[in-house]
Amino acid sequence: MQTIVELKNVTKEFQQKKAVNDVSFSIKQGEMVAILGANGAGKTTTMRMMLGLMKPTRGTVSLFQKDSKHKEVLERVGGMLQEVSVMDSLKVKELIQLIQSYYQHPLELSSLLELTGLHEEEWNKRTEKLSGGQKRRLNFALALAGNPDLLFLDEPTVGMDVTARENFWRKIKELNKQGKTILFTTHYLQEADEVAERIIMINKGEVVGDGTPEHLKGKLTKPRVRFQEKISYPIDFYRTLPFVAEVQKEKETVTLVATNADQLLKEIFDRQLNIHHIEVKLGRLEEVFSQLMEDTKEVDSNEHLLDAK
Ligand SMILES: Nc1ncnc2c1ncn2[C@@H]1O[C@H](COP(=O)(O)OP(=O)(O)OP(=O)(O)O)[C@@H](O)[C@H]1O
């Protein structure tokens, strides 16, 4: 598959502050990628640079092997940013038609209605009269108006209720299935885990993890072996088993946090423990995230030590 987004050693400095620090990654056509990070991690700045709205201090960004502002690129890209600002004094329909007119192959109005959940009665409203939620839907419609191949969404579900969020992701997944490449920022771990096929984790302007949710969990967390006891064994017995890092026991359900799940299972079978319903699970994404944040904190404090000398 073709690489359509490429960042090479991108840094953005604001006065003394490095908002983005030497970030490199590439994204292939058809990928669904989450950029995950806490508040202030540098997600929006990275996205604005990708969209050509901000110039990197150093490094390069290319979309479809060209500059983000190239006419052919603009035809193929749609963006929905965090701040909801739409042109006043126009009706919703007029504004959408205006944006559609900039593109050679715009998406039909009926498809836009369907995809964004904008209701027909909202078409004739003036944009300044829309509610926050309606403005967001309009912004989504504007991002899709040109029928883009590549869609950037900056924290798209902030402020949405559970149902709106589910509907939104259902539509985005549909678009992704059609072959569109989707890149979104979020600070919701669960959202990244459930929706994205790949997660790029950012902390303090740096990429600290990149891979599928399973890969990140598999590489950076300890697996859990869970089972039901047929007869009760003391908790200390489990603690003495090799490859066990931690034991949790609640009634007959036992969870062993393993340093090596395969070896631990072998051990359990060799000893013929009287248990059933054995499951092996990966650790949780929260663990990966906090571990990666901890790692970066350590680097930080070392830097402070160096500074103090
Ligand atoms: N125009 C600017 N001038 C100065 N500092 C800025 C500017 N834009 C962003 N920053 C700083 O750069 C850092 C990264 O900001 P950015 O908005 O990219 O983070 P974010 O991960 O998108 O956060 P959030 O989830 O809160 O939107 C922050 O410390 C922010 O204060």
TrEMBL record:
Q: Where are the transmembrane segments?
A: none
The answer to whether the entry has keyword Ligase is: no
Question: What are the protein's UniProt keywords?
Answer: ATP-binding, Nucleotide-binding, Transport
Q: Which SMART domains match?
A: AAA
Q: Does the keyword Transport apply?
A: yes
Which Pfam families does the record associate with it?
A: ABC_tran
Superkingdom of origin organism: Bacteria
| Domain ABC transporter: from-to ranges | 5-229
One GO molecular-function entry: ATP binding
InterPro entries to which the protein is assigned, alphabetical:
AAA+_ATPase, ABC_transporter-like_ATP-bd, ABC_transporter-like_CS, ABC_transporter_ATP-binding, P-loop_NTPase
The molecule here is called ABC transporter ATP-binding protein
